[in-house]
Structure formats: C-alpha cells, structure tokens
Amino acid sequence: MIKLIVQLSSPSLLRSVSVDLNNDSSLLIDIPDALCERDKVKFTVHTKTTLNSFQKPDFSVSRQHEDFIWLHDTLVETEEYAGLIIPPAPPKPDFESPREKMHKLGEGEATMTKEEYTKMKQELEAEYLAVFKKTVQVHEIFLQRLSSHPNLSKDRNFQIFLEYDQDLSVRRKNAKEMFGGFFKNMVKSADEVLISGIKDVDEFFEQEKTFLLDYFSKIKDSTAKAEKMTRSHKNVADDYIHISATLNSIAADDNTALKQHLEKFAELLEKLRKVEGRVASDQELKLTELLRYYMRDIQAAKDLLYRRARALADYENSNKALDKARLKSKDVAQAEENQKQCLLKFDKLSESGKKELTSFKGRRVVAFRKNLIEMAELEIKHAKQCVILHSTCIDLMDSSFIFAVVQVRGRR
Amino acid sequence: MHFPSVFSSSTASPLPTLSDSAMDPPLPVSSSEPPKDIFSEPPADTFKDPLNKTSAEKAASGGLSKAQAAVPVKVAADEELDDLFSDSLGESGAAPVTDVLSAPQNDVIKKDIFEEPPKASTDLFGDDDDEDLFKEPLGAMTKKPQGSLFTEAKSEAKAARPEQSNSAAADLFTEEAFTVTPVVAAAKSSVNTSSKTNGLHSDEEDLFAEATVELSLDSPHNDRRKREAAKPSAPAPSLSASASTSKPQPKTLEELEEEEKEDTFDLNISVTNPEKVGKSTTSLSMFRSKQFTVRRRFSDFLGLYEKLSEKHAQNGYIVPPPPEKSILGMTKVKVGKEDPSSAEFVERRRAALERYLHRVVSHPSLLQDPDVREFLEKEELPRAVSTQALSGAGFLKMINKATDAVSKMTIKMNESDVWFEEKLQEVESEDQQLRKLHAMVESLVNHRKELSVNTAMFAKSVAMLGSSEDNTALSRALSQLAEVEDRIEQLHQDQASNDFFIFAELLADYIRLLGAVRACFDQRMKAWQRWQDAQNMLQKKRETEAKLLWANKPDKLQQAKDEIVEWEAKVSQYEREFERVSATVRKEVIRFEKEKSRDFKKQIIRYLESLLQSQQQLIKYWEAFLPEAKAIA
Asked: Which regions are flagged for Low complexity bias (chain B) (predicted)?
C-alpha cells in the first residue's frame, strides 16, 4: 500500500492559488508536513502568533480532513458570520484516480517491458504526490484565509482548532446527520429558488446576484473542461513513454544504420514525455486549480447572498406579521421587536456583505492575473525546451549525413 | 513472362545463353576481381560513405564501361558544368533532374554497348567523336523535359559513352540516394538496363534535391572514382551477371528508349485527386515530366499487385503490398456525403496508394515489368476482377491461402544457411514489435485527437466565462485565452494527423512489407521443398533401378535409367532454382533493409520537424498572450 510522508519544505513554492492574503504577521499558519495512510491524511498544522489569546507563540497540532470540515461547518452555522464569505472548505483528498491507475498498471505489468513499467510507475507516483501536495495546499489555504480575515481569525472555534493539542475527535457525521444535512441542502436550494424570485431593493445586490449565478455556472463548466483537457494531455505524455520504450526495444534488435536513429528518437521521446507531463501538471496547477478554487469561492459568495436574501425575506415576513398584529392589536410589541431585529440583521448583513463581495472581486482578479501570467510563462518555457530538444535531435540525425559530406569535402 | 526464364538462365550462371549481349556477366573481359563480392557486400556501405559509392560506381561503371565504354564528350558544353565536367560528368547530371539525365544515359549507354562496347578509359573523355552517338540518343529522347535539364541530360548522355560518364551517373545516383539501393542500381546499370537505376533514383526525389547540391561539391571525387572505377570495371560484367536482370540484354535501341522514358516519368509519380466516381474512388497518377495522367480504380491497384506477385513472388522478390481494402471505410465514402471521416479515409488511401506505387517503381525489377508500365501509361485497363473481397475469386484466394499456410507448417526445413535463419527470426520479431509500436502510435493519435476536442471545448467554455466576467481587462484576457486555446486545438489536430500520416502509416506500411518479406522467405522454403522432393524421387528411382538390376529385368531397366536421368536433371534444376531464389531473397532483404532505414530516417526527421513546428507555434501563441495577462488590472 502506498504510504507517503511528504515534507513540504517550502510550501510557497507550489502555491497555485493566490488568495491575496494580507500580510498580517500576528497569526501565521502553515502545514509543514502531512502523513498519508490509506484514506486518512493527517496534517500537521503549525501556528506562529503574537496574539495573546493563544497560550504559546509557536505550536503545532495534528488535524485530519474531517476537522477542517467541522471548522468550516461551525463557521457557516455561526449567526454572527452570516454577512461574511466563509472560505470554502477544502475538498476531500481524492486519491482514487491515481490509485485506480496504479491498480490497472499492476494488471498490465505483463504486457510491458520492465523499463516501461518502472517509468509508468514513477509517473503515477509523481501524480500521486502531486495530488497529495495539492490536498495539503488547499487545506493550508483554507486556514490562511481564516487567519487573515479580521473577524474570522478571532473565532473561538478556530483558535481551538489551532491550539488544542489533543485529538479533536470530531465524529464523522452519522447517517442521520448525513441525511439531515442532505435534507437541509434540499430545503436550502428550494428556498433559494423561492427567494430568488424576490426583486431586490438594492441595485448592487441584484446585480451581484445575477453575475454570480451566471459566473458560477460558467466557471463550473470551464473547470470541468479544463480538467478533461489536462487529463488528455497527460495521456499523450504517457503514450510517449510506451512509444519510447518500444522504439528502444526495436533499436536493440536492429543492427543497421537505423539503430542510432531509433535510439535517438526514443531518447527524445523520453525527454519529451517529461516536458509534456510538466505542461499538463502546470496547466492543472495554474489553470484548473484556479478555476476550481474560485468555483468554490463563488459558491461561498452565493451562500452569503442567500443568507442575505433569507434575512430580507424574514424581514418582509416580520413586516407582514407586524401589520397583522396591529390589525388584531395582539402581540404588537413582540412583533415590533421581531421586525426590528430582522431589519437590524438584514442591514448588518447587507453592509458586511457589500464589503465582502467587493473585496472578493478584487481578490479574484488578482489571482487570475497572477496565475494566467505564470501559466503563459511556463507554457513558453516548456515549448522552448521542446524546440531545443527537437532541433538538437534533428541535427543529430542529420549529422551522419553532414558527416559524410564533410568527409567528402575533406577528401577533395 | 519471359522474365523468370531469362532470369533463371542468367542466374543459373554465366552460361552461354547470355553471351549475345554486351552485358553478359560471364564474359568478364578484364575482370580482375570477382564481381560477386562487390555485389553482395557493397550495398550497405555504399550508403554510408563515399567509399561505398565508389564501390557502387565501380560496379556500375565497370559494367557500363566494359560493355559500353562511355565517352565523356559533351559535358563541357553544359553551362555550369564545364568545370565540374572536367572532373566529373556526374555533376552535371546530378544538378538537374535526375530522371532526365538518367534516361538519356541509358540510351547512350545502350548505344555504346551496341556500337562499341569496349571503350573504357579516361582518355575517351576528351573525345568528341562520341557526340554523334549522343545526338542520336538525344533524338530518341523526345520527351519534353525542361530545356536546360535537357541539355545537361544530353551532355550526360554523351558523357555516357566514356566510362566516366557512366560511372559519374552511377555516382550521382548513389550519392543522392544515399540510402537508395545503390547495389541494385549498380548491378542494373552494369547489366545494361541502366534505366532501372534511373528509375530508382528518381523515386526518391526529396533526397535527390538535397543530394544534388552535394553532388556538385563532390564532383571531383567522382572523377577520381571514375578513374578508379575504370580499373575495376572488369568485375562489373560479372556483377551484372549476378544482378538479376529480368530482361535479356539484347534490346533494341527503341526499347531502351522506351524504358528510359518510363523511368523519367516514374520519378514523379503521384496519386492525386481521388474522385468519387459512381461508387468507387478513382485516382489519377500523373507523371510530371510529361504530365502523364491515368485514372485508376482502387481495385486496379490491387490488380497490379496480384499480377506482380503472381509473377515475381515465386522468384523470391519482395513485392510491395498495396493498402488493404476497407469495406467499412469505403461504404462510409459511398454513403456519407461530406463526412470529414470519409475525406480522411480518402486521403489516407490516396497517400497509401502513392507510397505503394513509389515502392513498386523503386524496385528495379518490378519497374521493368510490362504490367507496371501498362498500369502507368495505358488509358484503359481491363477491370481487375479477382480483387473484390466478396467475390468467388476472393473466396478461392482465401482457400489457397489457407492451404498454403497448412503446407508451410508441414514443411520442416533444415536450414543450411545461418543467415536466412537469423534474418527470418529478425523479421518475425521486428514484425511483432512494429505491431506493438503501431498500436501505441494509434493510441497516441487517439489521445491527441481527444486532447484537441477537449481543448476546443475548454476554449469555448473560457470564451463564455470571459463574456460573463465583469472586470473588463480580465474579460479581455479570458477571451484572448480562449482564442489561444482555439489555435492550440488546431495545432493538436494537425499534430494528430501528422502522428498518423507520418508515423503510424509508416509503421502500417512496414508491417505489410514485413509480411511480404516473410512471404519471400516462404517462397525460398517452397523452392527448397521442391528440390528435396525431387531428390527423394530420384532416390526412389535409383532404388527401383537397383531392384530391377537385381531382378534382372533388362526390358524395364532402360526405362528406369531414363527416368533417373530425367530426375537427375530435375534435381539439378530445382537445386539451381533454389539457389537462385535464395540469392534473390538475400539481395531483396538487403535492399529492403536499406530502404527501410532510409524511409524510417526520413520519416522520423519529418515527424520531428512537424513536432518542432507545432512547438514553435505554441511559443508564438503564448508569447502573444502574455502581455494580455499582464494587462489585467
């Protein structure tokens, strides 16, 4: 079984998604390493802080994916934060695809040469590692976004998450809760549909709503397409491995002048597959991951809008209730109180929501810019490398020809 | 088919039969060296280095020179060639179209042969007398090559007289071709059918172009070589003998001319404009020099193969197999109107047929076949009947194949020649590996197509995302990204078709060709079997004779003796046949390998160049995109 311990010596190196964190050094969090055992990934969460709400300035704890989810859920459920975009929870580590491939590779071992098999295995291990690193990274980013948020960083649960040195022993959700969660989601989306019919009084939110809805569906689509694209690019790179290996074995049997050409060709393909593999993984990291992250982030922003719309609906309902109460002159004071509360809540939500959404927009643009530039630069770099590889190979192959010419000339 | 018969006689040995023509190998006038060695060994080397060329030249020149004593006259007359000329005729020839040159040469040579065979020497070079001869040949070449070329050609032709010219020609060829099968060429030239050589060369035009340049540089060498060649010329005749010239030497001039013309054409065979006529695709093959065009159905190509393999396969020749019939693909073409896949199918078939024809005409013996000529020239061909996959003939063929396979299994040949044993093994393992590689390249093609499709979808999706984006600069960048991805999609698509046409089809061709190679090994085995059977029979007859002697029955004894004599003759005939087939197979395999390595090298380089180009495009696209990304504010 695959057991991996990854030392992320310099996490910043592989940061794919920049989230424009403010550089407040009062609370610094990173995940320096993680341990993967079967389905469980244990992250070491390391905190450095100057805040005195923590007992020590520097400490580490071990956390599992479920703990992160718990933290996210409690934040979402906290009434106080309804007006904030809660950073999206990191996705569950997904080692299925590399594992499955590994399994397939094991089955197909007999049909491959040893060399080919080793290379494929290396390739898969690299893929596995990449997935792993990505997982660690998204978890880290989640925490960093929390720590850089002025309100969320002061959350009690967050601090417990960071500090409590025992196992948090967050239970996994049991079936009933899972079902409950599912049901809640259903209700929420139905509610969303109902509420979305209500015309917003505020121009800003109305616009933001249509934009986010539209953008979400588009970015979701793009993410899926980008995933497919990078995957097929990977396939092309893998094909090079097989072709190169077969060419090598043909070259081994050949004893004509062709031998060296075949060998060179095989060698080139071997180098090419590495470059192509890099192209694919860089695309994955810079583009797909970016889209994927913002897809989730937009979902979080949409949730904010939903909560606000819900508050608005509540407020309107309370207005109606107040009218009714006044009509019947019954429980007027209570209804008035209720209506006031709703209005207050709604106003608060609107205010912080506006701020959050505006900053979100800026954050998104900066992140896109950074990643697109990096991707273009990487693409150029890889393509240039390919060009060099190709032309040296062509030169080498032609050299026998040139050599002959030189000889002839020399003789003359 | 006089082909085989002639052949047999020639191979049989330097027998008197050949005596008539200048070519006769057996009459090595001054042959100081055993020609055979040259013949068998030179091929490989020839390609690689100049030295080889020399050997080839020698062979060629030798043959020609002896027989024809070519005269290097006019070369000087040629424009640029003058200087070069002095050194080497070869140059002149090389620079312009080879075909033209070659053709004339042939004429000349032949003439020489006929008229004054033994004029081999450098001295002759200076002589102009030969020109007359040349003129004649020129007249013969009524073709309409470009003027300049023509003149050159003429010069060559004249040159041809002198040994040098011949040798030069040979040099040119060998050099250009590099990988071209020089041996064969040499042999042929010596034989007298220099035209063949020409044909060969012409096929590989690309190489030629490159080669030309170099040739001019090398010309001096050629001279030397020619001189050298002059000495070894003696062996040439013997070589010629070994060379399996299908045609008897004594050819009339006209015949020769004809041949030459053909060769010229062959140079530029291309299959173009596949048309959907009625139910079938027709293809036009045209010859550039004379704009010669005929229409052929796909089944005509198959028919040509049938004819050729019937005639030549049993002699141990590797007859290039045509592309397979594809009922599925064809029905698609017939049914679908403007389906891209059917267009691809047609193009694929067109390219495959073109390569097939090239392989046929680049084969020195096949080129000489009247059916090939007919196929290329004749306006109307009788419809090939037996090529239909679902016809009675097709069924019969299947049965024949099955019985063949069975008989093959029953033959247990104890191989006496290690070379054949090893080669066969090599061929078999190579076949397997090529199949594997082919499957992988096909999967590469598929994956690349998939990538192209996915990239297109992503491009569309990003374009949509860009239109939704409310930040203007980012929106712009996204739609630029969409455009870049769109172009990249095209790149992937092009690369996929390059993967296919340059790489996968090459492999497919060679898988088929390896089948033909194996078939020629089978033919050799069959010949061996015949010989063994005859020997067994002879043994039996001898036993009966002994029995009769024992039983003292003189009346039947005479009959038995006659039978023994008859079978003895058969045994020796079959043995000779076996030897001949073996020799041919060996030569063919060597030629095949040479051709293969040239083909592979050429295609690999082409393939790499296509990859290189698409990477260069990629750089351009991304570099154009970079400022857009940076402009996002």
From this structure: 8-21, 231-248
